[in-house]
């Protein structure tokens, strides 16, 4: 049975980096699905900012119908074609990427724990809790260096949409998490990877993979079994 691992957190919290650490530590191939691939081809005008710009940090900025369908397909063992989103032009391209279904799939994104239907599909729900100043610095570097954004545009977007949307929609997702990770992710990645490796071994007892307790160790909630 395919296991879906949700990794949520604010922009710049290190979701992709954490997911890649897991992939490196797990013994078998893992599929990584980025929620950023599922931005709508065009943004709904009702969510535009007062300055007349699209709000890419609102839940309605994403193609939830396609995302739910693709996660259902992956969990059923079927491959999918993931859309390609161009962040420089803020548009979905005509291309797609073939993405295989594997025994473990990591789904990372700012709203990966937001939708109740998707939460029900997840075997483990993870939230990265990182201070806002660190997240802002990481986002600034990423958007300027990798996405061709200007410094001023990144700063303006942060104060106009990123920060208020984080407080309204992103931070509350933490209540759904089984596994809360701080800034130092190496230990947390090692713990979760160990559970995933247990699951992937033949005849591994499922109870040790699924059982979580809300005991916090060095700032990270960990499974105790």
Q: What does this protein look like?
A:
The structure is a single chain. The protein has 225 residues and is of the alpha/beta class. It has one domain (3-221): Rossmann fold, CATH 3.40.50. It has helices spanning 15-25, 64-75, 116-121, 132-145, 151-170, 186-200, 206-210; strands at 3-9, 31-34, 80-86, 91-99, 104-108, 124-128, 179-181, 216-217, 220-221. A five-stranded parallel sheet has the order 2-5-1-6-7. Strand 3 and strand 4 form a beta hairpin. The longest helix is centred in the last third of the chain and has 20 residues, at 151-170. It is globular, with a radius of gyration of 17 Å. The model is unreliable at 204-208 and 211-225 (pLDDT under 50).
Could you give the order of strands across the largest sheet? 2-5-1-6-7
CATH superfamily: P-loop containing nucleotide triphosphate hydrolases
Helix content: 25-40%
Low-confidence stretches: 204-208, 211-225
Question: Average pLDDT value?
Answer: 88
- How does the overall form come out from the CA principal axes? globular
Order of helices and strands: EHEHEEEHEHHEHHEE
CATH architecture: 3-Layer(aba) Sandwich
Structural class: alpha/beta
**CATH fold name:** Rossmann fold
The major beta sheet can be summarized as:
5 strands, parallel
Care to count the β-strands? Answer: 9
Distance separating the two termini: 21 Å
Strand content: 15-25%
Q: Which secondary structure elements does this structure contain, and how are they paired or packed?
A:
Elements: E1 3-9, H1 15-25, E2 31-34, H2 64-75, E3 80-86, E4 91-99, E5 104-108, H3 116-121, E6 124-128, H4 132-145, H5 151-170, E7 179-181, H6 186-200, H7 206-210, E8 216-217, E9 220-221
């Amino acid at each position: 049975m395919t296991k879906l691992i949700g990794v949520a957190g604010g922009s710049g919290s290190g979701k992709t980096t954490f997911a890649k650490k897991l992939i490196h530590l797990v013994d078998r191939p893992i599929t990584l699905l980025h929620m950023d691939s599922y931005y709508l081809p065009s943004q709904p005008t009702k969510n535009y900012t007062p300055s007349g710009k699209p709000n890419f940090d609102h839940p309605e900025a994403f193609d939830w119908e396609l995302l739910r369908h693709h996660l259902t397909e992956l969990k059923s063992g079927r491959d999918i074609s993931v859309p390609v989103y161009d962040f420089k032009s803020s548009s979905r391209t005509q291309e797609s990427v073939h993405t295989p279904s594997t025994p473990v799939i990591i789904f990372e994104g700012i709203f990966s724990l937001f939708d109740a239907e998707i939460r029900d599909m997840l075997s483990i729900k993870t939230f990265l809790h990182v201070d806002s100043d660190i997240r802002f610095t990481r986002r600034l570097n990423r958007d300027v260096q990798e996405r061709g954004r200007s410094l001023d545009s990144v700063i303006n977007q942060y104060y106009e949409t990123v920060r208020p949307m984080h407080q309204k929609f992103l931070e509350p997702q933490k209540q759904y998490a089984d596994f809360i990770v701080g800034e130092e992710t190496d230990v947390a990645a090692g713990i979760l990877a160990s559970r995933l490796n247990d699951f992937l071994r033949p005849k591994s007892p499922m109870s040790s993979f699924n059982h979580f307790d809300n005991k916090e160790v060095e700032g990270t909630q960990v499974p105790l079994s």
